[in-house]
UniProtKB/TrEMBL annotation, chain A:
It comes from the Bacteria. PROSITE patterns: ETF_BETA (PS01065). Pfam families: ETF. One of its GO terms (molecular function) is electron transfer activity. It comes from Sediminihaliea albiluteola. The keyword Transport applies. Belongs to the ETF beta-subunit/FixA family. This is Electron transfer flavoprotein subunit beta. Heterodimer of an alpha and a beta subunit. GO terms for biological process: carboxylic acid catabolic process.
């Protein structure tokens, strides 16, 4: 079974991001970039499927400029077999990414596509669902457990108020939630082997996709600063403030 | 020295102290005494006569003058994270806790320096530096509690010493209240100052025996770019040293730490962390370097390959994100906390870097030979020759018997330290815990000179008496 995983290059989630002075965007100058944590979980899941003998080949795909090859190499070091970069410039919106991924799906015919449920930069949570619609495949989103059984996959989903299990016919799409697995470290020998793995570069035109933008980013501004707290002298004062100022009790 | 201490303060003395620091700032309840009178060692029971919390340098001076008049011993207290009982009040001393002197002021971007009260918490300074786009590089597991005054008094080291040195290297100036209550303003932030003895340097690491550090001007550094962490598995200690040599020759390392397989097992099991790689190896080296460009990464890889070819490294991982770098650091930093449940007998010893493998093997064979049932956990900052020897208490062995047996271990270990020209306390200080062993590292003449220096700063002998050496 062939598995396709998508990986996105995003700002490292431990970095405190700042807005640019002119408010046009997040300042990405000299900022540490890394693989989107949810995508990392997707790669790990694919590798585990391969280790269990379920998957036969893992293809890691990323959309972006040349720098995103770094994240593809990380996926290759973690256990993906080959990589695909779809070369784009600037920010691309979820619908475009979904269309590009659909192009790859048509080319590669994977039985399972695993994506992160969202990327931590845009927080859109749309690409997996849009790809499902475009490629006419069933989807199991927010997965905390994935079990492949013959030509079906059971996906346990993290939904409000509990867990829901859905059974999908393959080929299908799975988007990962945080509890699905704990990604491994990339070992140094594997990082070196990854350098020799195949990495193909496609243009959107190769996949028959024309990039059109439907979204305009108007402004990026930091969240309002929190007011400093105060120290109360006594329990009575605390209760009084909660009652009369905060009006929460 | 019992005349310097009392179990309870007289009402008159309490009133005098309250007149200086305020009514709520003199504490004598059992909880406060236990809290402010101790540190992370659990060997001596804290038993101060009282605790005062001064709010200004002047108040510290007045309290010390009063103590000098009354011949009352005082113990300065910072974040209370010491590991040698240097800040333990164990026989009726008055604790002066510096917690309230916690303001950060006078940031100077040109000098890259900032003024800190003694009670500023290390992490508070680290965060302040970060907000200014700078970096305070002295870092260790207790940074969230330890205070600058205590760091200076113990010359705290930690995990970045190989690159940034000890606390000493970051003190541009400090203010000290001597045993007579006088205030010394030492070095005043000067970069170059060869006008006589540098008394500042005597105060750093003096464990409060010369006076109380009340304020310091700390230097800040340029923040490291993109720190990358490697964890490498090695077959033996000699290989760890080979790896150190190979990497240090070609790269500026920020840190070079090591730990044993047993240390890793305990941390993984008890902290729920992931092993760096499946195959267990005898020892692990943790390296951190700054990735300024792609070339740094390629060099790190090339050196790794070389180490593998030579058989010095069996497997290894490298952090792919800041989160991974932090998780890998936890494998090393969480060791102390993890093994605390086995009430370990801890030693913080050093020798010159190149002698470490032979030194370690000798210590291990002595301990294993005498007590084959003891588990030994090794870890440390091998890049600066500092290793932490931890002997775990077998569950079945009573605590008293374990401590008595470890006392014997100490003697043997320190005899080896002496033979290797090492130090019985690399970074934890001497305090009460290592006092009896000071002579393994310092000559009688040296200790006698220390006594004379103490008398010059503290003629009445009230400043943290009984620590490091007896007068």
């Amino acid at each position: 079974m062939k598995v396709l995983v998508a990986v996105k290059r995003v700002v490292d989630h431990n970095v405190k991001v700042r807005a640019k002075a002119d408010g046009s965007d997040v300042d990405l100058n000299n900022v540490k970039m890394a693989i989107n944590p949810f995508c990392e979980i997707a790669v790990e899941e694919a590798v585990r499927l391969k280790e269990a003998g379920v998957a036969s080949e893992i293809i890691a795909v990323s959309v972006g400029d040349k720098a995103c090859q770094e994240q593809i190499r990380t996926a290759l070091a973690l256990g993906a077999d080959r990589g695909i970069q779809i070369e784009t410039e600037g920010a691309v919106e979820p619908l475009v990414v979904a269309k590009l991924l659909k192009g790859v799906v048509e080319k590669e015919q994977p039985q399972l596509v695993i994506l992160g449920k969202q990327s931590i930069d845009g927080d859109n949570n749309q690409t997996g669902q849009m790809l499902g619609a475009l490629a006419n495949m069933g989807q199991g989103t927010f997965a905390s457990e994935v079990k492949v059984d013959g030509d079906h996959v059971s996906v346990t989903r993290e939904v409000d108020g509990g867990l829901q299990t859905v059974k999908l016919k393959l080929p299908a799409i799975v988007t990962t939630d945080l509890r699905l697995n704990e990604p491994r470290y990339a070992s140094l020998p594997n990082i070196m082997k990854a350098k020799k793995k195949q990495l193909d570069v496609y243009t959107p035109a190769d996949l028959g996709v024309e990039i059109t933008s439907h979204l305009t980013q108007l402004r990026v501004e930091p969240p309002a600063e929190r007011q400093a707290g105060i120290k109360v002298e006594s329990v009575a004062q605390l209760v009084d403030k909660l009652k009369n100022e905060a009006k929460v009790i | 020295m019992s005349e310097l201490a009392v179990s309870e303060l007289s009402p008159e003395l309490v009133a005098s102290l309250e007149a200086i620091v305020g009514k709520d700032r003199v504490l004598s309840d059992a909880d406060s005494k236990a809290h402010y009178g101790g540190d992370w060692t659990r060997v001596y029971r804290p038993a101060p006569c009282a605790v005062v919390l001064p709010g200004s340098i002047e108040q510290v001076q007045e309290v010390v003058r009063l103590a000098a008049r009354e011949n009352l011993a005082v113990v300065p207290s910072g974040g209370r994270t010491g590991l040698s009982a240097g800040a333990v009040a164990y026989r009726g001393e008055l604790v002066i806790a510096l917690d309230r002197l916690n303001s950060i002021s006078d940031f100077n971007p040109v000098e890259r320096s900032v003024r800190c009260g003694a009670g500023v918490i290390t992490e508070q300074l680290q965060n302040f530096a970060q907000e200014q786009g700078l970096f305070y590089p002295v870092d260790f597991a207790s940074a969230g509690s330890s205070q600058i005054g205590g760091n200076i008094s113990t010359n705290a080291g930690g995990i970045k010493v190989i690159r940034h040195g000890m606390t000493r290297d970051w003190v541009a100036g400090l203010k000290l209240v001597t045993g007579t209550g006088e205030l010394l303003d030492l070095n005043r932030g000067l970069m170059k100052n060869n006008a006589g003895y540098d008394l500042r340097q005597l105060v750093i690491g003096a464990e409060g025996t010369l006076g109380i550090v009340v304020e310091a001007t700390m230097r800040l550094a340029r923040p490291p770019q993109d720190p990358v962490v490697l964890v490498l598995g090695t077959p033996d200690m000699a290989s760890v040293m080979e790896v150190l040599e190979v990497y240090q020759k070609r790269m500026d390392l920020q840190a070079f730490e090591f730990f044993s397989e047993l240390a890793l097992q305990k941390v993984v099991e008890h902290q729920g962390l992931q092993r760096p790689f499946e195959s267990p190896t005898e020892f692990y080296a943790l390296l951190e370097f700054e990735q300024r460009s792609e070339a740094d990464m390629e060099l790190a890889m090339e050196l790794f390959e070389h180490c593998v070819e030579q058989g010095w490294v069996i497997d290894g991982v490298i952090s792919q994100s800041v989160a991974q770098a932090e998780s890998l650091w936890r494998l090393r930093e969480d060791i102390s906390e993890t093994i605390a449940r086995w009430t370990p007998y801890k030693n913080d010893i050093s020798t010159t870097v190149s002698k470490v493998p032979a030194f370690l093997a000798e210590v291990e064979s002595v301990v294993n030979g005498a007590y084959p049932d003891f588990e030994i956990v090794w870890f440390g900052h091998i890049g600066d020759g500092n290793v932490h020897l931890n002997v775990l208490k077998p569950d079945a062995l009573p605590k008293a018997e374990f401590q008595q047996r470890c006392g014997e271990v100490s003697r043997w270990v320190f005899e080896i330290v002496q033979r290797y020209g090492g130090s019985v306390s690399a970074e934890h200080g001497v305090g009460l815990l290592k006092k009896d062993y000071l002579h393994y590292s310092r000559s009688a003449l040296e200790v006698d000179l220390m006594r004379q220096i103490k008398r010059a700063f503290d003629p009445a002998g009230i400043m943290n008496p009984g620590k490091i050496f007896d007068l």
